[in-house]
């Protein structure tokens, strides 16, 4: 009986959609596609994003080295959209202060961000959740 109730509750929630209010957690980069061309994660290093309530920090992780913060910013979720505003970038200030709009979904433990970059390229990034 409990199982049936749980399934009904889950089915009802799925029918009305889950409302995500935060991306809070740690995510490891799992690859991306630019204009439909898949680009796998590097074998030499990993990238990680740490989301908190309304902000994020992004790091490059290499064995034997301290994490290198390459980006920080703020984000806001509205329906299925994620608005990211970069506040720091160690490589280039081209996007600093600009807000980019992505659609976001979750597939199991993977955050999928899709959007059009300022240069017109269509981007899709996959980030696997590794921690809370």
Describe it.
The protein is mainly beta and 132 residues long. It has one domain (19-131): Lipocalin. Helix content is 11%, strand content 55%. The protein is built from one helix and nine strands. The protein has an eight-stranded antiparallel beta barrel. The longest helix is centred in the N-terminal third of the chain and has 15 residues, at 2-16. The radius of gyration is 17 Å and the shape is globular.
Fraction in beta strands: over 45%
Number of E strands: 9
Mean pLDDT value: 88
- Give the low-pLDDT segments: 1-16
The CATH topology is Lipocalin
Distance between the termini: 32 Å
Strand order of the biggest β-sheet: 1-3-4-5-6-7-8-9
Radius of gyration, in Å, reads 17 Å
Number of domains: 1
Number of helices: 1
| CATH level-4 homologous superfamily | Uncharacterised protein PF14869 family, DUF4488
Helix content: 10-25%
Shape-level CATH architecture: Beta Barrel
Derived from helix and strand composition plus strand pairing, the structural class reads: mainly beta
Please identify the top-level CATH class. Answer: Mainly Beta
Specify the overall morphology. globular
Main β sheet profile: 8 strands, antiparallel, barrel
Oligomer: single chain
Q: What's the order of the H and E elements? A: HEEEEEEEEE
Protein name: Lipocalin-like protein
Organism: Mucilaginibacter ginkgonis
